[in-house]
Amino acid sequence: MNKQTAGIHHITSFVGDPQGNVDFYAGVLGLRLVKKTINFDAPEVYHLYFGNEAGSPGTAITFFPSANNRRGRIGGGQVGITTYVVPTGSFDFWEERMRKLKVAHTVTERFSERYLQFKDYDGLQLEIVEREEGPLSKWSFGGVPADKAIKGFGGALLYSVAPDKTMELLQQVMGLERVGQEGDYVRFRAAGDLGNVIDINHTAMGWGIGGAGTVHHIAWRAKDDQDHQSWRNHIQQHGFQPTPIIDRQYFNAIYFREAGGILFEIATDTPGFATDEQADVLGEKLMLPDWFEPHRQQIEEGLAPIQVRVLEEDK
């Protein structure tokens, strides 16, 4: 059975201060906070989702922010760099924005593309690249107008402890196409137009350590529940041990760890973030699944207050 994912569904990371997380991804990057909920496995911790106006698959970056999170170390077995894609012609805008907001940054090239590289407040490694493909975001916030806004993921740079095994998985299981090699990086491409360009180190890397400032997992797209079950069967047939299907309210998920140490998830495109609140008020209220609703007061009292706010430099 040949299967082919459209690309990245979402990427989830550990970070520290929740308000700092909101200030960076909404304030600096201009993304929309599309869902404010909790870690279903640790309800004392937020689970925050940022993306385009709808948090569409291929745009959603998610976080478990907690001041109690220990600092991690980026390395093998992780997504090393998360890549964002912006409209063609907006690179200079983003470079100037980083200067204005005093975010340290560098400009580099990979596979004949220019990348603006920087870190968030917790040390997560990020980069911005211009590309034509992918729909424009309709969201604008603070100093980021819609015509310059991040469209979603451009892809990711994976750090593998066993790159040959990870590359075999990307091609033979996930259905990505190998498109080239440059220096120590090998490039793959998925079928979609966002979150579709995956680079990976060719030389094995030493293990990273999970914690604040590191990616927890990368999730890949499945069309719907039927396709999701097909993916689970497909993963098992290739010798991996996926979890049972887990209801995450806004998508269904399965997880497995590939041989290079990276935790993979496969998530459904449906039902999306408007399943429990209206599209025009996404992210404004703490949303809880039914089984946590009786404990709302206790949960809210244990969470630090956060607000989406325009940065002083943008006022």
Summarize the structure in words.
The chain is of the alpha+beta class. 16% of the residues lie in helices and 35% in strands. It has a single domain, classed as 2,3-Dihydroxybiphenyl 1,2-Dioxygenase, domain 1. The strands form two sheets. The protein has an eight-stranded mixed beta sheet. It has an eight-stranded mixed beta sheet with strand order 6-7-8-5-9-12-11-10, covered by helices on one side. The longest helix has 13 residues, at 225-237. The protein is globular. InterPro entries: Extradiol_RC_dioxygenase, Glyas_Bleomycin-R_OHBP_Dase, Glyas_Fos-R_dOase_dom, VOC_core. Residues 7-131, 152-269 form the VOC domain.
The coarse overall form would be globular
Q: How many individual helices? A: 5
**Uncertain spans:** none
Task: Describe the strand arrangement of the main beta sheet, using strand numbers.
Answer: 2-3-4-1-13-16-15-14
* CATH architecture identity: Roll
- Mean pLDDT, to the nearest integer, reads 97
The SS-based structural class is: alpha+beta
Q: What is the CATH homologous superfamily assignment? A: 2,3-Dihydroxybiphenyl 1,2-Dioxygenase, domain 1
Total individual domains: 1
- The CATH topology corresponds to 2,3-Dihydroxybiphenyl 1,2-Dioxygenase, domain 1
Distance between the termini: 54 Å
Run of helices and strands:
EHEEEEHEEEEHEEEEHEEEH
Indicate the percent of residues in helices.
Answer: 10-25%
DSSP strand count: 16
CATH class: Alpha Beta
GO molecular function, one term: dioxygenase activity
Organism: Paenibacillus abyssi
Protein name: Ring-cleaving dioxygenase MhqO
Keywords: Dioxygenase, Oxidoreductase
